[in-house]
Amino acid sequence: MAVQEARQGAEARAGAFGSAHDGGCTCGNCPHGARAGHRRAVAEFLLKRDEFAAGQGLPAAVAHSASASRQWVSDELTQSAAAVAERARAEGEAWLSRLWRRTACAVWGLVLLLLLVQSLTAIGTGWTTARTAGLLAALLVAAALTAASFFHRARGGVLAPVIGEDNRLSTSRAVAAMWVLFVAYAVLVLAGQLAAASAPGGRDELIAGLELARGAGVVTVLAVACGIAVLVRRVVGLRVLGQRLQKVRADRPRAADLLTDDSGRGTFADLQYVVISAVALVFASVRLARRPDQLPDLPWGLAVVVLVSAATYLAGKYAEGGRPVVLSVVRSREAGDLDAPIRTGEDIEIRGAGFVPPGAGTADRLSRMVVRIGPVHVHVPLVPVTGGFSNPTDTLLTVPVPAEVEPGRVEVRVVTAAGVETNAYAIEVTE
Questions:
Q1: Which of 237, 253, 386, 400 sees the fewest Cβ atoms within 10 Å?
Q2: 12 domain residue, yes or no
Q3: String of DSSP letters for 55-105
Q4: Is residue 399 a contact partner of residue 371, using CB atoms and an 8 Å limit?
Q5: So where does this one cross the membrane (predicted)?
Q6: What residues of the chain score a pLDDT lower than 70?
Q7: Is residue 308 located within the same domain as residue 395?
Q8: Same domain for 285 and 384?
Q9: Is 333 found in the same domain as 272?
């Protein structure tokens, strides 16, 4: 009752000082955009969290009770975090809708860069048919990408095919897309030269440039990269459905997703796959520039290096993640307390691993964690400290045993923010 009264008072104060357009709605009557609204919501949440961590802002109705004050603080932070998450989703959608223009400009910028490079390298040697074919092929690819970007403008434009179901950039899809675009460009260059060739011998030489013996390395790498992209999607989907991998959705894709895991930490498997593939692609581009009359003959040594890198990336996908597990449950004891069994109304510590999935460290996702003690569902309270939260953590949760739990032997399970449930751990609850 005290918590409800305190919350009603806080809502009344918020209504007195706020309005419908505070924050950053995207309607025409509001001067702030989605980005400004998200930043303001984040700043307000961080200020509130640090105030609660310092023991400030507690209403008198709950200040006398440690459990009531903890519940009130957790509920207030949960509501504030939900507002931040809503602003983040709005900003992510607005960012994606603007991205297609930037990607289209980047594509045409690459075309201009190609024109500049061809013009500089043509000094002294003259303009050739191969240069014209390369420029026309770039124009065709850029036009196709721009059209696709327009039709997928709500999903990030050109980047739409490489954005995964978790709203992050997919490393496997990005690498496969790079090789697909490169091979398509190389074939268009040959097609342009073939269309301009007049001598029968020149046409036969260009057609022979498409033979598998000359481009076997590139074709092999292309096939493996596309196969890895399809296989990784299947592997990740099956592991998520089998509760062997925890996935949470990101607010928006970022370039760092290509080199990091869901929590933003760099991963060796992704990093080496992107770097080696990029190096091989640069080498193939140079070979195409030197011999535009045939598919780039990627040496088998370099092709095998790319294949080993792809196998390492795939093995990393199989090895990552894991199901959360409860290792032990003990009675929470403060200094001066006597040793005793677990009773209703007391706190318990749940020790284990994997309670916080990668990318779920924000307050709105931490507040979704639930502990099932017998038939009773207990939401894990948020306990703020300066700069973060002391509860919950990836290896330790502290929750109260509610009075609704019947004395006797009950099972404890943890449900993470990704919806994955841990193993059952039996405890004895006394009156």
A1: 386
A2: no
A3: T-S--HHHHT-HHHHHHHHHHHHHHHHHHHHHHHHHHHHHHHHHHHHHHHH
A4: yes
A5: 105-127, 133-154, 175-196, 216-236
A6: 1-32, 201-202, 209
A7: no
A8: no
A9: no
